[in-house]
Write a structure and sequence with these properties.
The structure is a homotetramer of 355-residue chains.
Chain A lengths: L3 E2 L10 H9 L12 H13 L6 E5 L2 H12 L4 E6 L3 H4 L4 H4 L4 E4 L8 H13 L8 E8 L10 H13 L3 E6 L2 H5 L8 H7 L2 E5 L9 E5 L8 H7 L7 H11 L4 H4 L2 H16 L3 E2 L7 E7 H7 L3 E2 L1 E5 L4 E7 L6 H22 L1
Parallel strand pairs in A: 1-11, 3-4, 3-5, 5-6, 6-7
Antiparallel strand pairs in A: 2-8, 7-8, 9-10, 10-13, 12-13
Helix pairs in contact in A: 1-11, 2-11, 6-7, 13-15
Chain lengths: 355, 355, 355, 355
């Protein structure tokens, strides 16, 4: 029987319209480093989708790279970046931000999200501290939409965070590695134009949202980062064939593809959550996007992994582990059917053995 | 009339067999970060081509990134990298090596090449200097094959450099961004197995040699760089969909494609050189690979650029500039015909005007 | 009335025997950068005091600098340093460790101290995490003796931490900025030879312990850090006139001065603690060295500060702040008398007002 | 017979008035980190001496540290610092600037000096280069007064460099490690007020000019470097007992001491030069300050070093080496007498042997 794959949303190639676009332009000649018409076209489509005609758009290769480049470009040497203690930059980027010289200042989180009042409390304490000139000065807020736990910031929540940023001269930067899955969620009320209005910089994820690879950095106020091109080059993130990444976003932003590419993934993640609950498996908490977190007994996990690739999230207790089931734009209904049947069979078998 | 494109070898997409491979595997599911069977297959093909069954292979995204990652991974904090003063790391990487904390120690060059005796003289002077503990300690030699000036190191030249490295405990690292064009040159006598034997690390260029993007790092002695995976991640160079880059090298190393993908480019660059000479245009020097450097009068360059995209190399004098004509695996004979006709016409016109 | 000074232990010059030593050697000629006989003598005295004839000794200028230099020298790029979330490197060094490229990995603390079981739990969780190759790898443990909260690690506590380090291949580094006050504490059972036996590197504080400035780094196993001299230079921490710092340690390690220079400070800090308690002022917790932490009402603090310089530690609640009273080798009994009288008078006055 | 010491100007302690000042203030209590009245007084005296009442003054510990801190504080990440290829930052700081992430861009030099026209040519070539966005952008000029070769910039030379800086938006920073010896030179026409007028930042050397250690950074336009205090702290360069360094500058800037502390050193270096010439020893070139460079036969150097500590500069040829004789504020006439006699005797002896 074929393996099932629910470990992540970067297990397949690209949306067919992207491959077609790459095929069509394959023998065109373009100048390098994003000075080509494909890049112009893709940038223009993204500006339109964001209702932000002034925005600068830059195409980079991957998420950790993008975070490292943007954060370093925005901060001054004496500044750090505030992030949820579970934020990607805090945990799973192997110290990429610190390699660039900046401390990640951890904020408390709930379901992967920070909130405006904790942020404000942090800033108040910083300013009240007599020794703050000896401390890393917070220079920006990093958050991800959806978060690493599949949850979403609501528009009021983001707006409140923005207000604290304004009062404290903090940049607001949003990591949209999985942004398509937020935009496809029925629970989402934050649009691309909202992001362009609220953020100093954000990025629209490609790698996890149907591209072969690539992320689109949006700087709503052009000129926010002087010499950003050279900083990108210096950090090894400038793609010689910029048109290869741009073409993918050109396809993703044609016919509103990006706004709907996550629809089925979100719906199928919902089906998995219902299915797990029906089977008596505890969810860490329900999530509105494409990532599902379940507390599985380690014995079940071991057997499940013989047939299904899924991802470790964190230990729950001595005998349980939080595992992630992740759907993607490429996940098929039949795969979810098979997953749920398999789980049901394994659980039935476990119960029999227990007798 | 259509524009001509001779600015670089990264103006087109990918070799058709690469696009086909990406198409074929598009809906396969693969685990992330290079832990997939495509990566294994590509690595295995490269090991075979290098006659180096022990080698570690890593797939990165671009050349500047690869240089920054490898150099930082090999050096200790107190060490620097020796490179030709015209080396890519010395000039056109926007300080990527220094961003990682290491000095690029410039060596004199001729036609883009360093030589063993200058290297040895540098090391002797370093050791003879009473103050060398206050200086950056050379830790490795960086060179590129072919060089930024399209020239080639011969096997005796490389072997001599290796011997100086051995005597001075220097790593030898070769940047093969355009390696296919070296391997396709009739003047070349350095094979992939030679590189694997002589280098501590080298990389096989994809971006400029027929891939959409990507470079393959070869570490002949596995384990030379402990925790290289984490260093790659930390520097933002770990591709989530590693199989996207690996698939391209899998195609490039099937049926000896990589060994011959540069053949026509090298032949056509030869035709351009002959053509330019016939037209009385001075070459900077003849080159055996796919880059041609010509000293053009600025008036001619200005008119040529209306019809042909080519690249600035350096000012020659007040009225002349060294311009680069670059062919690629995708360059067609007819384009070279048109280029030479165009140059002839422009020169005729210039002469008429001069009367 | 003269101000009182209890803000820190670095408010005065140097122990008279240090000034005398500097005076005596003032017109001697010494070679630079620690290659002089004074440095040899001081190093030799420290080796003797540590019962560690093999140790390498290096003299640096200040504490933050020393932490940054040692931590960077010991770690590989992919590694971070484990430290109490209240550790000096975590909080009050303005991101010096991150500037050097390394993440400070925070551990929970109690009264400023970490413990072996939390450390072990952290390491177990790291190894159990499937994603640990994407995370910063812990490479060393940093702790301070006494801690930033004036508390002490006992010999069994340190030994237990050392065992966890051994099992996990972690370096152990101890920041001894105030080490003299530990060595003078009746509650202390950790000697210099114990530190030399348990640590990979530690430093003996001078700046806060009677020197004009300077810290002595002890590397018990010579050669632990290759090319440490050049790393020190590279980080701007190499003192041209090394003999100026060395001379101070030569004096401090003559006649056991360092072992007793903190005696009166520790005794007077004890008197302050008793006095505060007698006046009904709550201590954060009792401390066995030269730092006293008291929760003062903000109104009292404001009035006290008109006559006494003391240090902010942290907000306790909306109307109270934890303030630090710090004694030093130079603090006089009479100053403590005046402080306690002043507090008594202020409290009496507050109570009268309250009626 | 006692050794002679001409290796450097940092072989003795401090000017007696400095030791006296440290003695006098030894038991005063001062707040830390430069917030004390001694620091205010010293800063005020320096502002007066510079005719620059607005200047910010910061006291750091050493020269390499100061260069690293100032250069990093002034530059943006994509910028580098232009310096003579013989500049201290280019050669003898073990890569401290690169550790901070910035490239040192080498300029040609003559007798240790750069000039305005080479600088302008460099900037013109940079702007004319089509690829300059891929290159390190020059952000400042570093030079030293006097230079590492003991030579001096004249006021017209410095003014011309300043004009090129203005035209190219470059900061101008001057390393005054040995500034006292410039100010004491009869050939000098650049005053402290000139430096304050021409530089964005410069530093007044203490370590080599009569202090135990310490350098005074002058920022003529206050506010040029936001959050400089925190940057200094982050780079481990903030002295807890700031008053220890400040007191030394307070003494050096009392009664014009700094303006004359180098007088005898410069005069004695002149005597050495005359003496060497009289003995037929070739000078590298004559110098107007306290450093003398002579080409000595290696046999002579070997014998001289048995009795005299002097410094290696560079190899001249296979049998000769350029050695440095350095005087200081503490050098005595009799030492120069002995040096010249010794040289005469050794040369006579060599000549006898040659027969």
């Amino acid at each position: 029987m074929d393996m099932l794959y629910f470990a992540s949303d970067y297990m397949e190639g690209a949306h067919p319209s992207i491959l077609q676009k790459l095929q069509e332009q394959n023998f065109c000649h373009f100048p390098g480093y994003g000075t080509d018409p494909v890049t112009q076209s893709a940038a223009s489509r993204i500006r339109n989708a964001c209702h932000c005609p002034e925005a600068e758009i830059h195409f980079l290769e991957g998420g950790t790279q993008t975070n490292a480049v943007v954060i370093r470009a925005l901060l001054r040497p004496y500044q750090g970046v505030l992030a949820a203690e579970t934020g990607h930059v805090s945990t799973h980027e192997a110290g990429a931000i610190e390699f660039g010289g900046h401390k990640v200042l951890p904020l408390p989180q709930s379901q992967g999200k920070i909130n405006a009042s904790d942020l404000e409390a942090f800033m108040d304490a910083f300013h009240a501290d007599d020794n703050h000139d000896h401390m890393v000065m917070p220079g920006m807020v990093y958050l991800s939409q959806p978060t690493e736990y599949g949850t979403l910031y609501s528009l009021p929540e983001l707006s409140a965070i923005r207000r604290v940023c304004d009062r404290n001269r903090l940049f607001l930067y949003i990591d949209g590695a999985r942004l398509a899955y937020a935009l496809s969620s029925p629970q989402n009320d934050v649009t691309l134009p909202d992001l362009a209005r609220l953020c100093d910089v954000f990025y629209i994820g490609g790698t996890k949202c149907g591209a072969l690879l690539g992320e689109a950095v949006v700087v709503p106020k052009a000129g926010t980062i002087p010499h950003f091109f050279t900083i990108i080059k210096q950090m090894g993130a400038l793609c010689a064939k910029g048109f290869v990444i741009a073409a993918q976003f050109d396809a993703l932003f044609s016919n509103d593809l990006y706004l709907h590419i996550g629809d089925s993934a979100v719906r199928l993640a919902g089906r998995i959550q219902t299915g797990l609950s029906d089977l008596g498996i505890r969810l860490l908490f329900p999530t509105p996007t494409n990532q599902v977190f379940a507390c599985l007994p380690d014995s079940l996990t071991a057997r499940l992994r013989e047939h299904c690739v899924l991802a470790f999230m964190e230990k729950a207790d001595d005998t349980h582990t939080v595992m992630r089931f992740c759907t993607s734009w490429a996940t098929e209904e039949a795969e979810v059917d098979r997953l749920l049947s398999m789980l049901e069979a394994l659980l039935r078998d476990e119960r029999l053995r227990a007798h």
